[in-house]
Amino acid sequence: MPLAHRVPDLGALELLLAVARLGSLGRAARATGITQPAASSRIRSMERQLGVALVDRSPRGSELTDAGVLVTDWARRVVEAAEAFDAGAQALRGRRDSRLRVAASMTIAEYLLPGWLVALRAQRPGTAVSLFAGNSSAVAARLLAGEADLGFVEGLDVPAGLDGAVIGRDRLIVVAAPAHPWSRRRRELTAAELAATPLILRERGSGTRQVLDAALAGHGGLADPLLELASTTAVKAAVVSEAAPSVLSELAVGEELTARRLVEIPVAGLRLVRDLRAVWPTGQRPAGPARHLLGLTRGAA
Amino acid sequence: MPLAHRVPDLGALELLLAVARLGSLGRAARATGITQPAASSRIRSMERQLGVALVDRSPRGSELTDAGVLVTDWARRVVEAAEAFDAGAQALRGRRDSRLRVAASMTIAEYLLPGWLVALRAQRPGTAVSLFAGNSSAVAARLLAGEADLGFVEGLDVPAGLDGAVIGRDRLIVVAAPAHPWSRRRRELTAAELAATPLILRERGSGTRQVLDAALAGHGGLADPLLELASTTAVKAAVVSEAAPSVLSELAVGEELTARRLVEIPVAGLRLVRDLRAVWPTGQRPAGPARHLLGLTRGAA
DNA sequence: TGGGGACATAAGCTGGAGTTATGTGCAGCG
DNA sequence: CGCTGCACATAACTCCAGCTTATGTCCCCA
Description:
2 copies of one chain form a homodimer.
Chain A: H1 3-6, H2 10-22, H3 25-31, H4 36-50, E1 55-58, E2 61-64, H5 66-93, E3 100-104, H6 106-111, H7 113-123, E4 129-133, H8 136-144, E5 150-155, E6 162-176, H9 191-196, E7 200-202, H10 207-216, E8 227-229, H11 232-241, E9 246-249, H12 250-258, E10 263-265, E11 273-281, H13 288-297
Parallel strand pairs in A: 3-4, 3-5, 7-8
Antiparallel strand pairs in A: 1-2, 5-11, 6-9, 6-10, 6-11
The first copy, chain A, binds a DNA duplex through residues 9, 11, 24-27, 34-38, 40-42, 44-45, 57-62.
């Protein structure tokens, strides 16, 4: 359980990446703003903690061992996730005087925006971004009030008073635990079967739920849910442990699918997709940083 | 640059997840093995560091704020990456007396195995796994010497003396920087064009290079590379900064594609795929933990 | 109105990570 | 051949972040 005691500090992982990149403890130390002895000791204690030699030291520099290469690649993923966290958190704190004020739906803010912000930061360092997250109407209100420069929403329609461009699609997929009978079916599920089955769902009013309701209206209508939960995370947890399927955004379950904690159940003849849109007040085409961010988002999902 | 100073500790992120899950600082504290005041102070200093209120405290418990929900979701990604790191590192240290000894090619060990190990740990906690990473022939040698129970290789053929099962495919894709002319082409690239262009590549002998050589043999043969580098990471960095394309495993560039640091260039009529295989000594079908891990890997990539 | 749950505050301890100063080993060169 | 430069290791000391225990405050509920 105490993961933090078995995984090196973020600072140590960054240092390791610097050693890999620069080929010497001393240079890596300078690059990360510490002294050479500090770097030396930190790498050493990381090796002690992991029980694996990571770098080959020599009087001419330091190189990663074979194990070190692997560990460094795994470390890179942690650091990248931390960068996304940082980009998101910065934007969340961002003051109203930011150069680029973004308003986004929860799903987009959760899964896509941090990556875009990392890319933006790489290409235009120093662009101060602020982020507001809320539902579609709240995003629209912000834009119309002039309190945001660019919005992102998912859903079937563009809110009144806004122009928009489709930047990607979000597919809703049926998921079940690997142990669930549906995971072993040979024939595709039918829409009617799906409609008739009590599912684990977000509460009524969520965007996902609306799309699902609409799509199954012609197939007998959605059965009463087995369980209604307030957050996507809670739904995922319930699907994994309980024995009922759910319908979730593919953005939300990518991780779970690759780790096989959840399995996607194909459904015959049912397209549960919703567009992801960038939106802005009618007539005011995005310019400057907003235009640049918009360019980064094409082809999302 | 000093990312670690702006992102909370892994321990703090874990604690935040526990608060989200359990709805109270005190319970979260107990769950993570610290006392309530420690948790209180840690969450508070995280809020100070991020400049955002994360939890609403009340005498009846604590709930995440709207911003807290977002931050927690981003934190979850960091923690999941750390879990993969941990699972990998544990296996790397694993002693020879492990219950399951895995040998895998570098690509698979880097990108796929940690996720499988996390899944395995969730389903069969306490299965001690050890990992050896090397090229196909080294993996084969381990298996044939009885020093490994299950192997994973990518490539065109099954090494002699081994049986195997295809568990997925790895597609090699042409990538370029967004600023590169190929990223703006309207017409698909032809195989002959690709063959005639000097690329940034791994050194001769790497698996990727072999597949590429074979596939382009009928299209005039691969031109001399512009640059030959020793690691996939170095190749990616060169493609991003230099003005030349490369051909890389889609496993290696997933992150870069979604962040738009790299762009995939479609090529007409060229299928650069290689199978990912689980392998074992002829006749000795995997049993026990090996069989279970094998089950987790189906449908990879 | 008293008890219990939940969070905050206070005071003191500890260890990890950092710093400066110095030592060792190796390569290249005048 | 010894000097210089570079890289890593060791030693001694400092400091602060995070932990603990003890106690206070607030609110709900029986």
